[in-house]
Amino acid sequence: MQRTILLIALFSVLTLCACQPDTESKPKKKSENETPVVVVVNYPLQFIVESLVGPEFEVLNPVPPDANPETWLPNDTMIQTIQKADLIVTNGANFADWVKKLSLPRSKVLRTSLSLKDALITVPDFEVHSHGTGGAHSHAGTVAFFWLDPALMERQAEAIAQRLIDIDPQQKESIAANLEKLKESLKSLSQKLDQLEAEYPGLHWFSERPVYQYLARRCGWTMHHLHWKQGTNLSKSDWDKLNTMQQEHKIPFLVWEHQPEKERVKDLTEHGVTSVVLDPLTVKPAQGDYVSEMQRQLAQLELFLKQRQTESSKSTN
């Protein structure tokens, strides 16, 4: 009898244990108080995300301020941080080297170029070239600087907003309202580009590499990239190529991403080409934000074109 009672008791204990939840075999859910982390690959995407969210999200741009976001690579510690993020917002078009080299969880990656498939510009004569000390680098044919056209930046923002809402549905109304505010702020850039297109139609420009094609298309302008390497002396064939393109398309300008060397500017002037700087803002500006800095730069570009127009008028009179 006692043996029977012991067996019944042991069976009851085993049954009770089997009914308990297996806390170790199931993945732990993120705590309600834990802040979701969103990683971005460049400043324009950082600007978009920060415009859409508040302190409910942590926005991480892992690229140091003095590094090139196209060629920068993270260390082991940063790789672990990136891989643990709730969302990794990439640019697409092979913009950032580390995105291609890291093993990233697909479910967490948002490639914003996928929302722009119908608007992407490909350049047939891409080639491997260098960005400063970053080493050889190629963009694989598709121009990656979508945000230079405000309409495309809006579409990037819409795609990002939807993924943020998926992560935290409780923030849906707030994110949607912030998206509308962001679109409103981009209208000033669109209006300025409309003005420049109307006042200076059909312009042809030189650039070192394919960067400004989306902005140029927005204004009805044409960019001709030279594939010049920074810090290297130009060969006779480089200058011959410039002269041939210049004569064929009547190109009087070269737009630079950053302030060029004085000697290079002087050489271009002797070839009848004037230089102007328009930073694509892949890194955060020292002052202001994306919209305010683009407003400043477009106003500067407008002044440059007016001065050139005045000089051209004087020379023909």
TrEMBL record:
Name of the protein in question: High-affinity zinc uptake system binding-protein ZnuA
Organism in which the protein naturally occurs: Gimesia alba
The keyword Coiled coil belongs to this UniProt entry's keyword annotation: yes
Pfam families tied to this protein: ZnuA
GO molecular function: metal ion binding
Tagged with keyword Transport: yes
Record-linked InterPro entries: Bact_metal-bind_prot9 (IPR050492), ZnuA-like (IPR006127)
Similarity comment: family membership: Belongs to the bacterial solute-binding protein 9 family.
UniProtKB keywords: Coiled coil, Signal, Transport
Alphabetical GO biological process terms: metal ion transport
